[in-house]
Amino acid sequence: MTRTRFTAQERHGQLVTAALQAFALGGYAGTTTDQVARLAGVSQPYVIRLFGSKQELFLATVRHAGDQIEMKWRAAAAEEPTLRGLGHAYKELLAERELLIVLLHGFGAAEDPAIGEAVRSCYGNLYTVVRELTGATAEEARDFFAMGMLITVLGAMRVLGPDAVEPQPWMADILGTLPRPDTD
């Protein structure tokens, strides 16, 4: 049996993918580098050798999540450079819950100065990208992000998305207020 050798960049990507799963489940405080290593099939010292610390691994994971959202929005804007087009693309990300949940964990851990700086930078970049791609005003972008945060939280709670739970009355009330794809 021969072992496949990965480049450092491929191994880095493999570890960030494993970290995305682990941090989405356990958050920053509740996840260990050993858990990430086991998911990736590598040793824990290798994770530390590549990233230096759990914090740096988490920051790389947050940046990856933000980059994935930005790429999705840029692709959507190539077809329809409107808030509506970007909104539809964001709703598709509900199928990639880990990206959104890792960002929520990042916002929750923002009291840590390094994490706070990273998530503010990520959020600010996404805000700037939305305005750049759509020409939205500050107020329109604010409303877009407010709706996006609601959708993110509802997706994290499995109120929205491909694995949504059976709606309770309060969920149906909120869902009934969301724009419909054919009318928004």
TrEMBL record:
Residues 9-69 form the HTH tetR-type domain. InterPro entries: Homeodomain-like_sf, HTH-type_TetR-like_transc_reg, HTH_TetR. Gene3D superfamilies: Tetracycline Repressor, domain 2. Pfam families: TetR_N (PF00440). Keywords: DNA-binding. Residues 32-51 bind DNA. GO terms for molecular function: DNA-binding transcription factor activity; transcription cis-regulatory region binding. This is TetR family transcriptional regulator.
